[in-house]
Automatic annotation (TrEMBL):
InterPro entries: HSP15, S4_RNA-bd, S4_RNA-bd_sf. Residues 4-69 form the RNA-binding S4 domain. It holds the Pfam family S4. The lineage of its organism: Bacteria, Pseudomonadati, Pseudomonadota, Gammaproteobacteria, Oceanospirillales. This is Heat shock protein 15. It comes from Halomonas saccharevitans. Belongs to the HSP15 family. Residues 107-119 have a biased composition (Basic residues). Keywords: DNA-binding, RNA-binding, Stress response. It comes from the Bacteria. The keyword Electron transport does not apply. GO terms for molecular function: DNA binding; ribosomal large subunit binding; single-stranded RNA binding.
Length: 128
């Protein structure tokens, strides 16, 4: 196989559930191919670097193999290799999110009627 469409490769590598979602992400500028925006019909080549959003993180992967067919997850993972910088950045950001969530104090109970009124008044005042 010489090349595969970018949207089809992202779908086959299981970054997106459907090709339509892959197409929407590419057209929205969320996916970068070798550091630049690309069209959905862009031909993917072995060795290319692709940045793909995955939830809170952005993965930077190097294309190792080409496939236009969606297969099992282990075979899909064989299509790409995540760069070391991307893995390190992902770990740092996950740790920062974890620490931020720990620092936030969640209320023990829901606000009662009086507290809801106070919250509403505060929001109205700060919105002006």
């Amino acid at each position: 196989m010489d090349s595969v469409r970018l949207d089809k490769w992202l779908w086959a590598a299981r970054f997106f559930k459907t090709r339509a979602l892959a197409k929407k992400a590419i057209e929205g500028g969320k996916v970068q191919y070798n550091g630049a925006r690309a069209k959905t019909s862009k031909g993917v080549e072995v060795g290319a670097l692709i940045r793909v959003p995955q939830g809170w993180d952005t993965l930077e992967v190097e294309v190792v193999d080409l496939s236009g067919q969606r297969r099992g997850a282990p075979e899909a993972r064989a299509l790409y290799r995540e760069t070391a910088e991307s893995a390190a950045r992902r770990e740092r950001e996950a740790e920062a999110r974890r620490l931020t969530n720990q620092a936030m104090q969640h209320p023990l109970k829901r606000p009662d009627k009086k507290q809801r009124r106070e919250i509403k008044r505060f929001q109205e005042r700060s919105g002006e």
